[in-house]
Design a protein that fits this description.
The protein is an alpha/beta fold and about 400 residues long. It has 13 helices and 14 strands. It has a domain of about 230 residues: 3-Layer(aba) Sandwich (Aspartate Aminotransferase, domain 2), CATH 3.40.640. The structure holds pyridoxal-5'-phosphate (PLP).
Length: about 400
């Protein structure tokens, strides 16, 4: 036993290799794929796999409707179209997210407005969103970052009061619940991802869930070039891309849904173990969850006191102890995206920014909590493939480094 940090030549906490990712796809996916091919069509409305996927998704989340599409980016874009977002509107969202949360806003000619996050959870709050609302705000996209539910009830109340639509970005939150209700079922529209990096994968794919028949109809048009395959009554009502899924993706997704409960349980339990271990450490903070939240961790961001620790040095020291962390998740969107900073989303044009009544200053200081958090947190790669020993080693490594660098 040595307290000398491994970066200074001490014995690392962990010498064993980090647990490898196991097999994500097996016989059930193969059986579903074979059945899909035997249908002799891979079109999403002609075969039965996409229909079955949508039925299962609606039952799982507890909504009236589910629509499958090509990605969560597509799902969010379609949700925005369904919610009536268009040129001149503003959409409030989190600056800590994937590009897919933002692209639909700009494609529809609306202005992305970033609200700051709560420093403990890195999620939007009703207060931070309220500070950004204007008479032009048409929708809010709440991102359940890390798989840790946003405090939705006050946010929903705010949106209802102001006549604003609430879209839930659940890409990172498969299996997560708030007050025993699955995320995605509480806002106007919920959007899920089946890309290969998420809890479950169909290679790529997305799901849209909603309760309102009009939102459902419009979202269904929005993912299929505005061909109306619901009842044929509204073809070419508006301009829409081809965001269709195929029967092959739906077949794999169906089999993957069987694996979801175990994956979510395992990630939840490992996160709870990590939080318990980190609780005693000074200057180190596990993510906070709101009362009633049941997180299904996709990533796990460990906060460091910025005044006390240099995050890159801290991360390097933890890595030397045998635990693969890195600093931050993404650079906040308002700082990272050139097309926002330069207002240059489309070729030889500054549209929609040059037509807007107001455009936020996409610059440092816009969202201080988000900027500070992303510069000073550690990303721990939580997954269902970790064992308890790996989590305990992570706690030991972080504790050792906190004491050694503190
Ligand atoms: C992954 C992700 C998306 C986009 O999902 P795709 O299926 O890759 O388009 C959107 N939002 C968040 C928060 C994500 O993590």
């Amino acid at each position: 036993m040595s307290d000398t940090l491994a970066i200074y030549g001490g014995t690392p906490v962990r010498r064993e290799p980090w647990p490898a990712t196991g097999r994500r796809f097996g016989e059930t996916e193969l059986e579903e794929l074979r059945a899909a091919l035997e249908q002799n069509t891979l079109f999403y409305t002609a075969g039965g796999k996409t229909r079955a996927l949508c039925e299962r998704m609606a039952a799982l989340v507890g909504t009236e409707y589910a629509i499958a599409c090509s990605s969560c980016s597509a799902a969010i874009h379609a949700a925005l179209k369904a919610c009536g977002v268009g040129p001149g509107d503003e959409v409030v969202t989190s600056p800590i997210t994937d590009a897919g949360t933002v692209l639909g806003i700009v494609y529809e000619g609306a202005i992305p407005v970033f609200a700051d996050v709560d420093p403990g959870s890195c999620n939007l709050t009703a207060e931070t969103v309220a500070a950004r609302l204007t008479e032009r705000t048409r929708a809010v996209i709440a991102v359940h970052l890390q798989g840790n539910p946003v405090d939705l009830n006050p946010l929903l109340a705010l949106c209802r009061r102001r006549g604003i639509r609430l879209i839930e970005d659940c890409a990172q939150a498969w299996g997560a619940r708030l007050n025993d209700r699955p995320v995605g079922s509480m806002g106007d529209v919920g959007c899920y991802s089946l890309n290969d990096f998420k809890h479950i994968s169909a290679g790529d794919g997305g799901l849209i869930v909603a309760n309102d028949p009009e939102l459902h109809h419009r979202a269904a048009l929005a993912i299929d070039k505005c061909y109306d395959r619901i009842d044929g009554s509204r073809p070419m009502e508006f301009c829409a891309p081809n965001y269709r899924i195929t029967e092959l993706q739906s077949a794999v997704a169906l089999a993957q849904l069987d694996r979801l409960p175990a994956i979510a349980e395992r990630r939840h339990a490992l996160g709870a173990r990590l939080a318990a271990g980190l609780a005693g450490l000074d200057g180190v903070h596990a993510p906070t969850s709101v009362p009633g939240a049941w997180p299904s961790w996709w990533i796990y961001l460990i906060g460091l006191d910025a005044a006390r620790y240099d995050a890159p040095a801290f991360a390097a020291a933890v890595v030397a102890e045998g635990v693969p962390v890195r600093v931050g998740y993404v650079e906040p969107v308002h700082l990272a995206y050139r097309y926002l900073r330069e207002r240059s989303a489309f070729n030889h044009s500054h549209w929609p920014f040059d037509q807007a009544t107001a455009v936020p200053d996409y610059a440092p200081g816009l969202c201080p909590n988000a900027e500070r958090a992303m510069a000073s947190c550690l990303l721990f790669p939580i997954s269902e493939w970790l064992d308890e020993q790996a989590v305990d080693d992570a706690v030991a490594a972080v504790g050792k480094v906190a004491a050694g660098l503190g």
